[in-house]
From TrEMBL, chains A, B:
Residues 1-22 are annotated as: Disordered. Residues 13-22 have a biased composition (Pro residues). SMART domains: HTH_ARSR. The lineage of its organism: Bacteria, Bacillati, Actinomycetota, Actinomycetes, Streptosporangiales. It comes from the Bacteria. Residues 34-114 form the HTH arsR-type domain. This is Helix-turn-helix transcriptional regulator.
């Protein structure tokens, strides 16, 4: 944990009537090597960090982040994070929204999300 | 932290007269995205986990691990871990030995080494 006063990880209640999550690994099948691999890039860390600290709604579409990247590239990164078990995604009509699997990751890898939340986003 | 009684991370005193470390990033230059990337494979996690929990000497050559892999492949993995800042390596004549940078990693990424120590090495 850093000694700076970063915002807390935001946990929001699950609203009723959500679409079913897209396919994802069960919590007991999460693998540390896979999760670390999925997180090992600045864009991936930025996605997860912003969802942790800045979420305004239960889940967010990739447009919310304002990344200056092609949508196909973003879709790939979000999918990789979902398939590793870091993000949960739901399809709302044409829009796919993401949240972080905070409870599942805290249960399996305690402290990992704090490291991501404390990540210093400055360019290397 | 798992609820199982895994061994503690072993910290051994630095013996006098060590060779200088091979080139490595300074503690303040460690980057989470780089460290996570370096750790994101079962062999890499196994190397670090065994050094953390099973070390018998201050540092160990790659032969100590008994991995059934070509030496060139192992050399590559150890070097990647050193260049990311996870391992410190020293050259003893013809032999290169490794230890985990426990203090540096705990200072920058608290809890990360516990996740590695708690890693469940069963095949995915």
């Amino acid at each position: 944990m850093s000694s700076t006063t970063r915002p807390a990880i935001r946990v929001l209640p699950e609203p009723p009537g959500l679409p079913a999550p897209l396919p994802e690994p069960a919590v007991e099948d999460l693998r540390l090597e896979t999760v670390l691999g999925a997180l090992s890039g600045p864009l991936r860390l930025s996605i997860v960090r912003r969802l942790l600290l800045e979420r305004e709604e239960f889940d967010h579409p990739c447009g919310w982040f304002g990344f200056d990247r092609p949508k196909s590239s973003l879709t790939h990164h979000f999918k990789a994070l979902r398939e590793a078990g870091v993000l949960r995604q739901r399809q709302y009509g044409l829009e796919r929204r993401s949240e972080v699997r905070v409870d599942d990751l805290n249960a399996r890898f305690p402290g990992l999300l704090d490291l991501v939340a404390d990540w210093d986003e400055r360019p290397a």
